């Protein structure tokens, strides 16, 4: 568990995922919009990520899970 200032959360995720030992992870967010923003930030940082939430089609959710 990490206690992190709000503005540093995404930077910490990128740092944690840069460790080669981290091959898969699930990140929980409070909102659907937050999930999309985290996914966008990780992808922009070269880390493959998919959001899964109720606004996604069932097919999109299943593809994201299959990719995990």
Major sheet summary line: none
Quaternary structure of the protein: single chain
Number of helices: 3
Residue ranges: pLDDT <50 for 5 or more in a row? none
How much of the sequence lies in strands comes to: under 5%
Query: What letter string, H or E per element, gives the SSE order?
Result: HHH
Structural class: mainly alpha
In total, how many beta strands?
Answer: 0
What percentage of residues falls in helices of 4 or more residues? Answer: 40-55%
Name the shape in a single word: globular
Provide a descriptive summary of the structure in words.
The structure is a single chain. By secondary structure, the protein is mostly helical. The protein has 3 helices and no strands. The radius of gyration is 12 Å and the shape is globular. The relative contact order is 0.13.
Show the helix and strand layout:
Layout lengths: L8 H9 L14 H13 L13 H10 L1
Quick structural summary:
The protein has helices at 9-17, 32-44, 58-67. With 68 residues, the protein is mainly α.
Features:
single chain; mainly alpha; 0% strand; 68 residues; 3 helices
């Amino acid at each position: 568990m990490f206690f992190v200032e709000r503005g540093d959360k995404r930077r910490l995720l990128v740092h944690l995922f840069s460790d080669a030992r981290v091959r898969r992870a699930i990140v929980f967010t409070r909102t659907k919009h937050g999930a999309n923003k985290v996914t966008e930030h990780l992808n922009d940082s070269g880390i493959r990520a998919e959001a899964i939430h109720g606004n996604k089609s069932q097919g999109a959710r299943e593809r994201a899970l299959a990719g995990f």
